[in-house]
Amino acid sequence: MTRSRTRAALGASLLTLALPGLVALGPAPAASADDAGTRSSADTGAADGSGITLTLPRRQVAYQEYGSTVYSDLGLRLLNLTGAPLQIRSTRASYDVPVEVRATTAAGEVELPDATAIGTLDDMVTMRLRPVVDGKPKGRVSVRRFDGCLGSGGTERARPDAPASTPYPSTCYYNPYALGGVQGLQRGWSAALLGYRGLRLQRGSYDVTFTVRSDLADALGMSAAERTRTSRVIVKKGPYYEGDPGRRTAPRSAEDPSRTAARHHPGPDPEDPGSPEPVASVDGPRPDLRSLPAWGIQLSRSGKYLQFGATVWNGGDSPLVVDGFRREREDVMDGYQYFFDADGEQVGYQPVGAFEWDAKETHQQWHFQDFATYSLLRADKSVAVKSRKEAFCLANTDAVDLTAPGADWTVENEELETSCGDYGSQSIREVLASGWGDTYAQFRAGQSFGIAGLPNGTYYIEVRANPEGNLVESDQTNNVALRTIRLSGRGAQRKVTVPRVGIVDETMGGWYGGF
């Protein structure tokens, strides 16, 4: 099984400045003195604009790693020097209409330009890069536009009087079928807009200019001086380079800092499933498991396997919390679901199935058995193939609807090795927070659908949550999602056609490898 990791701004993106996707233009317009770099936070304020401003070092040195690649966010930040947080909410009424985006600023609520995906601001920033020779800009300008998300590369305090914490998500997540997103910038905080990207740059000097998209800047009240910054970047050969035996770790962008176990729910007592006593029925907040359409659908190179991603998410007003307690001398844990009142206090629990130890070399973790099933259905909805992936280590991998009542904006995740336990574990706690989904990418044989013996035609990928009905939730009528596909061709030339769902563009994101 491969666990997906998806975000609005993929940190591992590699930008090749000579590729056709980059537009070559004439010389860039001259920058003013203020545009030449960053003013300090003390003298960059709302006097000439909204107080929401770009900030960028005037001059910086970047080092090549892995050949001619520079891994850097180039120091680009959006700074909030207003007296109130900047909050941006994205919602979609259906998959057939654009994403609506609204911002709450110090000046009030404003409507921002529509977006194509939840949690992103389309073409938020334009980068213009021009070589510098003998101290003067020379040559043509390379242009690249980036979608924006506050916190794609993290947020941080930018001045000493800023609040000590922020209520907003610490990073950006991407799921093509997400329904609602929240991003924000606390007053006195800054947000990295580019994430940690790879830029293929030869050694030398460059002038780089970043500009916020004009209609977006206008909506946020950003002045001309606040929306544009320029820096001189000097690229040098770095301490690490391709083939350097001293390089022991991958670039930071390849790391996965957000795997799972909710901070609000510490692990269980290994001796006792808890108190008060088990409950026969649950009143008050409850989770609500829902399925999204399968996505990232493709065939293996051999044409024998249908691969896909599947997301089950919690749309209820309470987290799904399942604890496991190991049977003596067995590789099985009995599972219990826990329930909480509106204040987050535990009010009861009941048995809901079991966890099994998965001893395979690529897993080595405890899996809950009754979370979801994946099936390939024929045109008449009968089962053609069923995935053998029927046990799960729950994880908050995708923010699906952070605008839902009870959604947790600041889920702090730990490594899957922690939330999934190890062989010596006597107990375990797995959590799916409200508003969050758990995505699995089915790439392995046995988990993906074997289609070598199936005739061509129309099929449906079925994602079904809570298949046995063991988990207690507020609504079981929304547990199933079907995605239409069509098979054609033969052998290695076999093809899968996947009709689009509304106007959703699945090509905007990508996979992160996982468990």
Share in β-strands? 35-45%
As a percent range, the share of helical residues equals under 10%
Number of domains: 2
Largest sheet: 10 strands, mixed
- Global Rg: 25 Å
Which class do the helix and strand fractions yield?
mainly beta
C-alpha termini separation:
6 Å
**Mean of all residue-level pLDDT scores:** 80
Number of strands: 35
Low-confidence stretches: 4-47, 241-267, 414-418, 510-515
Count of discrete alpha- or pi-helical segments spanning 4 or more residues: 2
> What is the global morphology?
globular
Write the layout of secondary structure elements.
Blueprint: E1 2-3, E2 14-16, E3 23-25, E4 52-55, E5 59-65, E6 69-72, E7 77-80, E8 86-91, E9 99-105, E10 108-115, E11 121-133, E12 136-137, E13 141-148, E14 155-157, E15 180-185, E16 189-192, E17 197-200, E18 204-212, H1 214-220, E19 228-237, E20 289-291, E21 295-299, E22 305-314, E23 320-326, E24 332-340, E25 346-358, E26 365-368, E27 372-377, E28 383-386, E29 398-399, H2 416-419, E30 427-432, E31 436-442, E32 449-450, E33 457-465, E34 480-488, E35 495-497
Describe the model.
With 515 residues, the chain is an all-beta fold. The protein has two domains: 7-241, no CATH class; 289-501, Intracellular proteinase inhibitor BsuPI (Immunoglobulin-like, Sandwich). It has two helices and 35 strands. It has helices at 214-220, 416-419; strands at 2-3, 14-16, 23-25, 52-55, 59-65, 69-72, 77-80, 86-91, 99-105, 108-115, 121-133, 136-137, 141-148, 155-157, 180-185, 189-192, 197-200, 204-212, 228-237, 289-291, 295-299, 305-314, 320-326, 332-340, 346-358, 365-368, 372-377, 383-386, 398-399, 427-432, 436-442, 449-450, 457-465, 480-488, 495-497. The strands form six sheets. Strands 2, 3, 5, 6, 11, 12, 13, 17, 18 and 19 form a ten-stranded mixed sheet that branches. Strands 1, 20, 21, 22, 29, 31 and 32 form a seven-stranded antiparallel sheet that branches. The N and C termini lie close together (6 Å). Mean pLDDT is 80; it is low at 4-47, 241-267, 414-418 and 510-515.
